[in-house]
């Protein structure tokens, strides 16, 4: 029986670990690219079911080796400097990682004549400044990126288009809106809040949650829905095309925080604003249109955000309980 071989870059990351679980459940052979220094805690439980290949994707020779070993049918390229806020501190590094890892993969595919299907992971951050009359955001909306991270993702996205056009490669482009769930990095606001609350419940800190700007609104999906969408895009998406993955509903960061506080076992939690958590320019509102992916690919999320946030808080409770004291 034919068994799809999927190469997942950034396999040790938040999305990588969820995508790996999904692909294994589908019966795929999973090959993961990771760096020698990558933390493997998220994939430890399933490590014996994977083939792992060491590579820094900024090095084309090492990328060639990965492709030669993996011989993939599908490539989902998740590896990236993924944190918008960090990109203000390290714009050059963000650009270098996000752009060069992908161009190395494309060039190595060309050199090795790989016909693998490739999914480019873009972001709703590419839309950046969105006017109220442009909501919900469609794929045709102008891109007005507002952070170094967003510019790097625009570049990855358009590079995917160019390689599709220039060389006829099977490249589909995803623009994922915010996604969260268990294992989300603590640098991301909703996960940071959940962790702070879990630490308060464990008596490790005073009941004060430190926050940045609570006003922006974001369109959140569950990461487990998003990875299913990624898979479906490779199976059914039109090469060269771009697709939003979103819920079509936006929540303010404040609403997310208040929901998490409402789930806490503590009677009262103070909210304290911390200017260090503010970004130079933030995107005020992101709400996507999911019409294209729903109509053309048949994907829509099924897990409500309330469930996702509850699972995220529970994840932090369990991690904190498991820590040596
Ligand atoms: O930094 P590491 O060694 O822990 O590995 C990260 C990997 N990565 C790289 N792998 C190979 N060569 C590189 N030069 C390189 N730089 C980074 O990417 C880690 O395994 C992964 C990123 O994981 P997270 O930060 O948890 O990102 P997440 O949320 O899974 O995002 C996946 C994709 C990214 O393209 C985001 O920009 C997008 O979804 O939102």
Give an overview in words.
The protein contains 10 helices and 13 strands. By secondary structure, it is α/β, with parallel strands linked by helices. The protein folds into 2 domains: 5-179 and 222-245, Rossmann fold; 182-218 and 249-286 and 303-321, Alpha-Beta Complex (UDP-galactose 4-epimerase, domain 1), CATH 3.90.25.10. Helix 5 links the parallel strand 5 (117-123) and strand 6 (171-176). Helix 2 (60-70) crosses helix 4 (91-111) and helix 8 packs across helix 10 (305-322). It binds ligand A2R. Ligand A2R binds at residues 10, 12-16, 35, 37-39, 56-58, 78-80, 82, 97, 101, 121, 123, 176, 185.
Structure in a nutshell:
With 325 residues, the chain is of the alpha/beta class. 41% of the residues lie in helices and 16% in strands.
């Amino acid at each position: 029986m034919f068994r799809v071989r999927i190469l997942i870059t950034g396999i040790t990351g938040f999305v990588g670990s969820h995508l790996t679980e999904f692909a294994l459940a589908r019966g795929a052979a999973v090959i993961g690219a990771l760096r020698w220094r990558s933390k493997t805690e998220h994939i430890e439980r399933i490590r014996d079911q994977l083939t792992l290949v060491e590579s820094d994707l900024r090095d084309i020779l090492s990328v060639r080796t990965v492709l030669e070993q993996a011989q993939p049918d599908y490539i989902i390229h998740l590896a990236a400097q993924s944190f918008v806020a960090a990109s203000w501190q390290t714009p050059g590094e963000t650009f270098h990682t996000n752009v060069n890892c992908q161009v190395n993969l494309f060039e190595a595919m060309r050199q090795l004549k790989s016909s693998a299907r490739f999914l480019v992971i873009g972001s709703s951050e590419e839309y950046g400044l969105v006017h109220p009359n442009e909501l919900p955001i469609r794929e045709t909306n102008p891109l007005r990126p507002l952070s170094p991270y967003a510019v790097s993702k625009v570049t990855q996205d358009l590079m995917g288009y160019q390689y599709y056009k220039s060389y006829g490669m099977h490249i589909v482009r995803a623009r994922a809106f915010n996604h969260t769930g268990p294992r989300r990095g603590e640098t991301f606001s909703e996960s940071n809040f959940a962790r702070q609350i879990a630490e308060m419940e464990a008596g490790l800190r005073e009941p004060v949650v430190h926050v940045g700007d609570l006003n922006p609104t974001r369109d959140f999906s569950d990461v487990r829905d998003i990875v299913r969408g990624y898979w479906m895009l490779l199976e059914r998406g039109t090469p060269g095309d771009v697709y939003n993955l979103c819920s079509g509903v936006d929540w303010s960061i404040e609403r997310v925080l208040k929901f998490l506080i409402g789930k806490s076992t503590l009677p009262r939690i103070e909210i304290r604003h911390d200017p260090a958590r503010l970004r130079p320019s933030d995107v005020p509102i992101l709400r996507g249109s999911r019409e294209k992916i729903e109509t053309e690919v048949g994907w829509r999320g099924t897990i409500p955000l309330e469930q996702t946030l509850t699972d995220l808080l529970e994840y932090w409770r369990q991690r904190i309980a498991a820590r040596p004291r």
